[in-house]
């Protein structure tokens, strides 16, 4: 099971848009994909709430009642699966604490889910904060994808993210694999080029070549309860996400493999 956490402490960088449309690109390539909405604001869930989604079966039940993730996975009409979010997720920090047992709980739940659906790939849409939920996603992930909007303030946010991930590595006793994805890019704006050059200076090859540009299709598709491939599979926005999918396949091939446990 491949697990990707889509996470930035800064809001408004396109994390939910990235999660949804990257999942859709994976599905178009015959992958089985589940989305975990880990944001109490439930923006991802909001897109699909009018499509027969059972909003009573949400991620907080995993934390509160130990409901298995496989029981919470709901099929969407477009072939994806979704574990919805709930505003109650804000209670996780207070009710469960930030100890190792809580931080490892999601990873353990995903291991059980992998037994039920071995071919499943999981994309986790994290809330923009440092709390139990995003930290759990980072702990459980094979790769952290950090969306970075092409503005100057977002560079500072990316530096903070890098420091935060590096600080977690001694706890995990491994390098946290991460890639930075430039979003809200505009080809005609000098700022896009300047931000990209600075990001590459700071993070080198961890900055993906693929970029997600500003497209009306992204906002319109979400408004209509669709991912961009449903809205217009031939759009430039869809092409951006397919390019991202193919680049990530090369990244995934290079990820360290877990060391087999001796019998």
TrEMBL record:
Domain (AAA) ranges: 3-176
PROSITE patterns in UniProt: PROKAR_LIPOPROTEIN
Name of the protein this chain belongs to: ParA family protein
């Amino acid at each position: 099971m491949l697990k990707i956490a889509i996470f930035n402490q800064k809001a408004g960088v396109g994390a939910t848009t990235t999660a949804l449309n990257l999942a859709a690109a994976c599905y178009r390539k015959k992958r089985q994909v589940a989305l975990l909405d880990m944001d109490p604001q439930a923006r991802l869930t909001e897109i699909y709430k009018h499509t027969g989604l059972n909003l009573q079966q949400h991620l907080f039940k995993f934390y509160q009642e130990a409901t298995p993730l496989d029981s919470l996975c709901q099929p969407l009409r477009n072939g994806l699966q979704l574990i919805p979010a709930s505003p109650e997720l804000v209670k996780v920090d207070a009710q469960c604490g930030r100890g190792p047992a809580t931080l490892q709980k999601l990873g353990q739940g995903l291991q059980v889910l992998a037994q039920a659906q071995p071919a499943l790939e999981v994309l986790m849409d994290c809330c923009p904060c440092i709390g139990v939920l995003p930290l759990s996603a980072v702990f459980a992930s094979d790769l952290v994808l950090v969306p970075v909007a092409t503005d100057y303030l977002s560079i500072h946010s990316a530096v903070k993210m890098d420091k935060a991930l590096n600080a977690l590595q001694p706890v995990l006793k491994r390098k946290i694999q991460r890639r930075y994805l430039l979003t809200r890019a505009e080809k005609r704006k000098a700022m896009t080029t300047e931000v990209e050059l600075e990001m590459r200076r700071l993070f080198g090859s961890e900055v993906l070549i693929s970029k997600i540009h500003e497209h009306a299709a992204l906002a319109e598709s979400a408004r209509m309860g669709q991912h961009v491939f449903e809205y217009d599979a031939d759009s430039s926005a869809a092409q951006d996400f397919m390019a991202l999918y193919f680049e990530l396949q090369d990244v995934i091939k290079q990820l360290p493999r877990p060391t087999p446990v001796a019998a």
